[in-house]
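Ligand-bound model needed. zinc ion.
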Amino acid sequence: MKVSFKDLGLVNTREMFAKAVKGGYAIPAFNFNNMEQLQAIIQAAAETKSPVILQVSKGARNYANQTLLRYMAQGAVEYAKELGWKKPQIVLHLDHGDSYELCKSCVDFGFSSVMIDGSALPYDENVALSRKVVNYAHKYDVTVEAELGVLAGVEDEVSSEASHYTKPEDVIDFVKKTKCDSLAISIGTSHGAYKFKPEQCTRDPKTGKLVPPPLAFDVLKAIEKKLPGFPIVLHGSSSVPQEYVDIINAHGGKLPDAIGIPEEQLRKAAKSAVCKINIDSDSRLAMTAAIRQHFDEFPGHFDPRQYLKPAREEMKKMYIHKIINVLGSNGKAR
Ligand SMILES: [Zn+2]
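Prediction:
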């Protein structure tokens, strides 16, 4: 049975992106695959009155079950209202759809936005696949994110050795032919908690921590020039907060040289045509850090609520920080 996202109380990204590009801020796109993450995201968005994109990857859909996820998203809208957020602006988005069939299934299942990632395909095949998804999704008013350029790193099934920056000379043709609603680009962000190899970085002599290479803002600027006002998306934009990495490593974890995108660079990007910033690893790190610390302090605890509660609190704190201090989307969905 087909379900429209509108019946679930969700919204698509069209209006939200147009406002974000104009207003010089970005919408948070947080991945979720369990209840505690979802609670933390919704509490953070409701308290800050920030529009929010709930992202579900193919892996998350397999992990949590597609039917359950749909009702969790619907529940999230009702929960947000209960928290006093009168008009919640919540998007349910497929992250890295890798086929027409998967995107179609998500449209039919109540998603309000889908990503078709044909970035690993030859240009013409990427255009054709993206166009096909757009044709179907737009019939149901579902918005579509397409991708041009390749990101390095691993995210569920998506993995690539090296990144290839988006070529600014391709973007007008791509957007015109595919009619996509937003475009994910590659300017040096990367998936996962190991965004850069040590040899790509310099090392801070004081802390011994890696300092990553800067994002290619010249490429972003060139793309903005070609597509004025068009919504741009950044994947792989976790900052990998070193305090979480340190807590994890101090409590039996092993994440040597985990490194992300410095927040000041994301802040700069959010002020541009970048209107959606994807954050997944930071939530994983916040959760893991809180749980590891809790287990060290309370070795006798075995009720999941005892360690998931502080994990949820830590994620919420991190989400609120991103919304207010990095993306600037607070107060944009009253
Ligand atoms: Zn991604």
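The first strand starts at residue 27 and ends at 31.
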